[in-house]
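Checklist before submission:
- one chain only
- standard amino acids only
- sequence pasted in full

Submission:
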Amino acid sequence: MTSSTRQSGLRDSPRRRVAERHPALYPLAVRYHQLRRHLAWARSGARWVTPPSPTRPTAPGPSYRVKKHASLLLRQLGEEEMWLQHNKVHNLRLACTRIDTVVIRPGETFSFNRLVGNCTRRRGYVDGMKLSNGKAHAGTGGGICQLANLLVWMFMHSDLTMVERSQHSFDPFPDNGRVLPWGVGCSIVWNYVDLVVRNDTDASFTVRVGVGDRYLEGELRSDREPTRSFSVHARAEGFEQVEGRWFRHNEIWREVIDRRTGEHIGAELLRRNRALVTYEPEAARG
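Returned file contents:
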């Protein structure tokens, strides 16, 4: 997966946006970015993946697993936040119906926002946990980033090309039973903060996602047997203090492996991460 996303450098501190310095301008800034994205979609010339249709069954054919993953639905946070997590599960069920069974054919582009749409109350979404400036709060459609995170992890283990992936500028929670490396997720904001991948291969990829009893479950399959597999991991992890504030950083690398021989055939740097920590890291207590 090559990447044309912006990579964050190791700056002393995150740059504050105009709307952060002047909160009253935030609604105008949101509307401005939404209009820019609508215009970009109209001018893109991309062949966009469309939502699954119950009247259009998937054609039978060979299918090979590319990557399978599951993420825990309910994390042990504060009791006052558990209702937001239960609401998140409801939101995830709705969002999964817009993604499950979609096929990314050669030359097509997958956009999370275009497929899921705007998560409004009118469409059945409820208040779930959202993150803003490193703090959790209730917001309509909150929690669907977990689905985007699941998709990113599967896409990283495929030959799909990453076109756009954002990330949180803050690290709001300490690691507690973390399974995936820190910094492999992504942010979603309708409609201008998106997850976008393009299929530059000759294979078609089918996405399967759903909400199980305890886990959000996903699988990426291909109609052609993959010749490569991938291992994604973090390097150069650490915390550093700058002007009294703590920052977390790492690098996300991907190892490329020949499926037939098991031989390591290459490695690539996917992203450098840096985020402001909003809790007290162990480094501060050492």
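Reviewer check: Residues 61-225 form one domain.
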